[in-house]
Specification:
InterPro entries: Galactose-bd-like_sf. By secondary structure, the protein is mainly beta. The protein has two domains: 72 residues, Sandwich (Immunoglobulin-like), CATH 2.60.40.10; 148 residues, Jelly Rolls (Sandwich). The protein has three helices and 17 strands. The strands form three sheets. Strands 8, 9, 10, 11, 12, 13, 14, 15, 16 and 17 form a ten-stranded antiparallel sheet that branches. The chain has a four-stranded antiparallel sheet with strand order 4-3-6-7, with no helix packed on it. Strands 1-2-5 form a three-stranded antiparallel sheet, with no helix packed on it. Strand 6 and strand 7 form a beta hairpin. The longest helix is centred in the N-terminal third of the chain and has 24 residues. The protein is globular and about 65 Å long.
């Protein structure tokens, strides 16, 4: 027998073994894990909500743990991975839907929700912006359009958001007056998303300088924002403005005395892809 024949026979044997294994596997009645007996169908997602004694606007969420191997929660800001017991802080008065997602063996999930009513805003960290969620006509009525350019820029309001579009180097603003305390630090922020813009500025001010209709706005006070020349806002984006910002001095501001300030949001440029804002906040930090 030649060496060539021995090698050929060896490879034929290997091929036959492989085909035999494939045939054996294809005959196995259980191909998936969908019915493998490991998935728990008796997962309980129930939980309790208990106010933290002596601490306003803080609550303990406690899920039962029988047959639950992991927990996820949603307190109105999106789903997050958590523990069976979580302490949450809800600084703003309002009604919240609290959802617990229980995960059992085999990846089975079930959810349970409860409504939680927060009667009063936290005196320190409560949001001073009125209508910052743009959810109702009353919310939208809290804002005043600041006309800067005669045309070519426009704020529009949807259910739960405000959107600015602009072109040909036009701009337009949005503002409201807010009462603040002297000697107190405040932070300004909002959710912002966009499809990407060219030659665009998006700026947020908190200042004692009142806006004037028909005039550009540039004042002392906090300024954060997007600026395509600085490298943000060019590509599609979504998130907190404080995290995306590449313009200004930061999102914290304070004033020496109790006073009226103006929260001004303005945007314009050569080609502003739609920029949408929501959850506008001005909160105390001390």
């Amino acid at each position: 027998m030649s060496l060539k024949y021995k090698i050929t026979s060896k490879y034929r044997l290997i091929i036959l073994v492989i085909f035999g294994m494939i045939a054996l596997t294809s005959c196995t009645p259980e191909d998936s894990f969908g019915n493998n007996g490991l998935t728990d169908t008796h997962v309980d997602a129930s939980f309790t909500i208990t106010p933290v004694e002596g601490q306003a606007n803080r609550y303990v969420l406690k899920a039962q743990t029988t047959n639950v191997i992991a927990s996820k929660w949603n307190i109105g800001e999106g789903i997050f991975q958590g523990k069976s017991t979580e302490e949450i802080f809800l600084p703003d008065a309002g009604s919240y839907t609290i959802t617990h997602i229980a995960i059992g063996r085999g990846g089975s999930t079930i959810s349970s929700s409860q409504e939680l009513v927060v009667e009063e805003s936290d005196p320190n960290a409560g949001n001073l912006v009125v209508g910052g969620k743009f959810e109702t006509d009353e919310d939208i009525a809290q804002w005043t359009i600041l006309s800067i350019s005669a045309s070519g820029a426009n704020w529009t309001f949807g259910s739960g958001s405000a959107t600015i579009t602009a072109s040909d180097w036009n701009q337009q603003g949005l503002f409201q007056a807010i009462e603040v305390q002297g000697g107190k630090n405040y932070t300004v922020d909002m959710s912002v998303q966009g499809e990407g813009s060219v030659d665009t500025w998006f700026e947020v001010y908190v200042s004692t300088t009142a806006p004037v209709q028909g005039s550009d706005y540039s004042a002392d006070g906090t300024k954060i924002g997007l600026n395509t020349w600085n490298g943000c806002g060019n590509a599609p984006f979504s998130g907190k403005l404080s995290q995306l910002s590449c313009a200004g001095e930061g999102n914290m501001v304070s004033f020496d005395t109790d006073t009226t300030v103006y929260l001004v949001i303005k945007c314009g440029g050569g080609n502003v892809g739609a920029i949408t804002i929501d959850n506008v906040e001005l909160r105390g930090t001390n």
